[in-house]
Amino acid sequence: MIPWNFTQIPGMEQEKAELQKLANQDRIPHAQLFLGDFGSAALGLALAFARLVLCEQSTSEPCETCPACLKSGRWVHPDLHFSFPVIGEKKTSNDFLPAWRTFLTQHPYGHPSDWFNQMGEENKQGNINVAECQQIFQKLSYTIVEGRYKILLMWGPEFLGKEGNRLLKLIEEPPENTLFLLVGADADRILPTILSRCQLVKIRPFQDPEIAEALQALSLAGTHEATTWAYLADGNLGQAIHLATVSERPVAELLLTWLRTCYADSGQPMVSLVEKLARLGREEQKSLFQYGLYFFRQMILSLADRPQAIRLSDEEKKAAINLASHLDLERLAEMVNLFDESLRSIERNANAKILFLNVSIQLHAVLKDQMRYIPSLN
User: Fold this and answer.
1) Model-level pTM?
2) What is the Cα Rg of the chain in Å?
3) CA–CA separation, 269 vs 190, rounded Å?
4) Alpha carbons 297 and 309: distance in angstroms, whole number
5) What per-residue confidence (pLDDT) applies to 376?
6) Whether 81 contacts 179, CB under 8 Å
7) What single DSSP character describes residue 24?
8) 320: left (phi > 0), else alpha (psi -120 to 50), else beta?
9) Tell me: the pLDDT tens digits for 179-211?
10) How far is the first Cα of the chain from the last one, in angstroms, to the nearest whole number?
11) How many CB atoms lie within 10 A of CB 331?
12) 3-class state of residue 127 by DSSP
């Protein structure tokens, strides 16, 4: 296993330099939020920063020879604690540490759905629960075992929900030489009270050449394929890795089938497809809506007469341009809002069959420019 460090992250030279400078200062902010999409460099940079802070040598990279680096390189340093979403009301991160270390070792560009799949719980929604918050208090009450700092790295503060309020005092006034490194993707889903207590480290998307370089370094693609996957991933290395490791794109195919079915004037195929969609795992349903939002935004480029800027495969690009020719910006905006609201409903554990049936009916109305059905609020 190659220990994780800044060198393994493609590009991001300015971000690395700023973190390296910060790690060698006497006063590091006690709470930082690395904010970037899941699949961005956010988690990788936070991990490398944590290892550098714990390193016993003052360098720009973990030295990989001191006792601290030897332990942090295997994610077993006694002063480096992890918190992440899990499945189970009374389960905590400690129950899944071996699987988490494997997850990090594979590559730190995964999505929560990848993590839940690894746990064998792809059909359930994870969270950071009360038991986890209590365990964080316990972990950070320990005396520092080695070095200058103890660090809590939390991946997915979005999954805290209202339980995050239990941590506010601890984040605002942590024990001496205690650092919080939060890694999140959606600021709108993180408690404002937590946001206000953290110094923001905003992580930009990867550039296409950086993604292509990483795919080749991981031996996932040749030069031509790496360039293609980088283009389709649109700045997300995690998505590029996924594209490079699967030969099919079932989510894209399923979306196009759904849109074509909703466009047709036939009720039974729509009902049959709704039943199929309702049986998908919750994370798969979320992925479908997430990809749909991306697909619709590519269609907007077609309506804006910028087809050269569309980031889709040839087949999907052709379908997007064709579908966009039957719509206007107002109706396309309705579809974006519909999928955005539906994604939030899935995250709130809505009844999947009712949700997909309602979305299908509304999609049909929008695509055909018919009177829209507005569900009763009573």
Assistant:
1) 0.75
2) 22
3) 39
4) 11
5) 41
6) no
7) T
8) alpha
9) 999 999 999 999 999 999 999 999 999 999 999
10) 58
11) 15
12) strand
CB 153 within 8 A of CB 82: yes
Q: Please tell me the distance from the alpha carbon of residue 99 to that of residue 313, in angstroms, as a whole number.
A: 34
Beta strands in 198-295, from DSSP E residues, in sequence order: 199-202
CA angle 108, 111, 112 (to 5 degrees): 115
Q: Which residue has the tokens 């693609």?
A: 221
Contacts of 9 (CB under 8 A, 6+ apart): 16, 41, 44, 45, 48
DSSP 150-211: EEEEEE-GGG-GGGGGGGHHHHHSPSTTEEEEEEES-GGGS-HHHHTTSEEEEPPPPPHHHH
- For the chain, give every domain's residue range: 6-204, 209-247, 250-368
pLDDT computed for residue 153 by the predictor: 98
CATH number of 6-204: 3.40.50.300
Place of tokens 């937590």: 194
For residue 283, count other CB atoms closer than 10 A to its CB. 22
Residue pLDDT, tens place only, 206-229: 999 999 999 988 888 777 778 877
CA-closest candidate to residue 338, choices 365, 311, 305, 314? 365
Backbone angles phi, psi at 101, to 5 degrees: -65, -40
Mean pLDDT score, 91-106: 93
Q: Which amino acid does the sequence have at 4?
A: W
Q: What is the DSSP string of 318-368?
A: HHHHHHHTT--HHHHHHHHHHHHHHHHHHHTT--HHHHHHHHHHHHHHHHH
- According to DSSP, the residues that pair with 180 across neighbouring strands are 31, 152
Tell me the longest C-alpha to C-alpha distance in the chain.
Answer: 69
Cβ(122)–Cβ(116) under 8 Å? yes
